Each structure stands twice: as structure tokens, then as C-alpha cells.
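Reviewers of the previous submission asked for a worked example of the structure-prediction workflow described in the proposal, so we include one complete record here. The input consisted solely of the amino acid sequence. No template or homolog information was supplied to the procedure at any stage.
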Amino acid sequence: MVGLDARELMVVAQIEARGIRDPRVLAALREVPRHRFVPPEWRSEAYEDHPLPIGHGQTVSQPYIVAFMAEALGLNGTERVLEVGSGSGYFAAVLSHLAGEVVGLELEPDLAARSATLLADLGILNAALHLADGRKGWPPGAPYEAIVLSCATGDVPGALWRQLAPGGVLLAPLGSPGDVQWLTRFKGGPGRSERLLPVAFVPLR
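From that input alone, the workflow returned the following C-alpha cells.
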């Protein structure tokens, strides 16, 4: 099932029912057409409760994880946000409804081009997606009030810490593929962290 009814059911049954309460996050998930961000052969499953392949060994995260991460950032609508590992561009699109500006980075040229085109087609003007090495961040847009990694890493690259604004939030899945990964939130720097949720993400390349 694809369309508004499927999207509403996704929000009610998968997201609200599992404890996501931020009304702005719920509204963003209702607004963004997830089926546009997956290959045609997977669109019938676009609003189901699992990740989907998008090519090049990457996936778009399940809707609940996207919602959980969006809520964990605690955005108020004015922030500049950096997303590392944007993949399909779906999370960047969701974040565009929650932040002032979103900068997405993707290392795979085909995905970066497709995602940038799709964001433009959807009329999303406050999110820009760049072909770039996420480990280096995006210095032209720094500092960022929030940085989120949509891929797993053993350690957060130093360049990202240097681009985080004072008092900013960094959210990252920490761990290696095949091992337990923890979605970890840092506030203000590497010294203050909290584990939020066990997750499974493709690795940062």
C-alpha cells in the first residue's frame, strides 16, 4: 500500500504506538512521501516497519528509527544540521521540516545525485545534499547545532567534533557491523554521552 493512508497508518501504528510524542516529528513523518525515496520495486513496502535496500549496499532506515533519531535531536526549527551518510535523502527530507537548514553528505555518487534531484523535485529548499566524504564533514556550513550520523562508526571522526557548535548535539550509531551498535547522543562534546537504543546501521565509509 502506497499513499496518504499508508503513511498515516505508519505514523499511528509504528511511531506513535511506540512512544514518539514530538508533534513536529509526527507531522514531518506524515508530510514526507517515503515511497519516493526507495527504488520502484520496493515501493509497495515503503511504509512497512523495516529498512529497505536503495542500492550500492545501502538501506533507508525503518520509519521508527528515523522518527526516534529525529526526536532525540530535540530540534526547535532554527538549527543548522549536518547529516553524514544521507543515502536516499529520506532523513534529510524529514529533518528539513524540523530544522532551519540541513546539509547532507553522501559518498556514493549515484545516490548523492538521485537524492539531490529528489529533494529539489519535492520543493525542499532548505536541504542540500553533497557528494563528499562524511568523515571530513562539510566545513563551509560549520558550525552545526546538530550533527547526525546515519551510518555506524567505532569512533566519531575528529573533523565532526570540530564542526559541532558549542552546546550542540551529535547523534551517532557507535559500533561495528555484526557487533552491538548503540545509538549514542553527545551534548556539547565527546565527554557527555548517553546510550539511547541498540541499532544496526551500515558502516561509515
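Residues 109-121 form the longest helix (13 residues). We consider this example representative of the routine output the project will generate in years two and three.
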